[in-house]
Amino acid sequence: MPQSMMNRTACQRPFLGVTFDLDGTLLYTLEDIAYSANHALAAHGFPGHRLETYRWLVGDGTRTLIERALPVGTRSEETVSACVHTYLDYYSRNWAAHTRRYAGIETVLDRLADMDMYLAVLSNKPHRFTRLCVQTFLNQWHFDPILGQREGTPKKPSPVLAQQIIDRFGTNPGRILYVGDSGVDMKTAVNAGMYPVGAVWGFRSAGELVDAGARSLLNRPLDLLLLIDS
Questions:
Q1: Among 1, 69, 126, 158, which is least packed by CB within 10 angstroms?
Q2: Domains of the chain
Q3: Alpha carbons 133 and 58: distance in angstroms, whole number
């Protein structure tokens, strides 16, 4: 075990690391996702949705997003694949148009870095875009690893990628906070043995987070510091 890891493990803090979801947790990305999905739907002759509707469609990966957005009865393999292709093409050119960090995230990450906490990102967003978002909007802080959805790898709530983070941190999973804004995130934390923390400022409701296993709820990013210090 590296010396730095031994030092952190010896620390008396109950938590040694934080894993973050990306969309709806670190970054507000809803508009760029929604506009890209509506573009794809319109390009293939289907109606779009209001921005707020997408709060309930995101979270399970791009393909599931498109399946949910398409009208019932039109979700054939061919149609979904065509819309996903159009979505990714449009999103690749517009993914940063409206995306931004949530208020307070900078302060939280600065404080976590000062505390020498391990930081990671685990998202169901395609891996390429997950890395792009982190490199563009969060490059002042060190996240390792940064993991998004890749073909052939189970997506959340599978604990497979979460286990990679646990192995990288080299500590008991119960000493890793997993902060996310959806039930999928909370289930991922539970499945991996991490401590599930619900980000109520994100896309989903507090009720969904609690039902999925959240042990703590945060109304704003700065509340994470209070949880860690409590």
A1: 1
A2: 3-29+99-229 (3.40.50.1000), 30-94 (1.10.150)
A3: 16
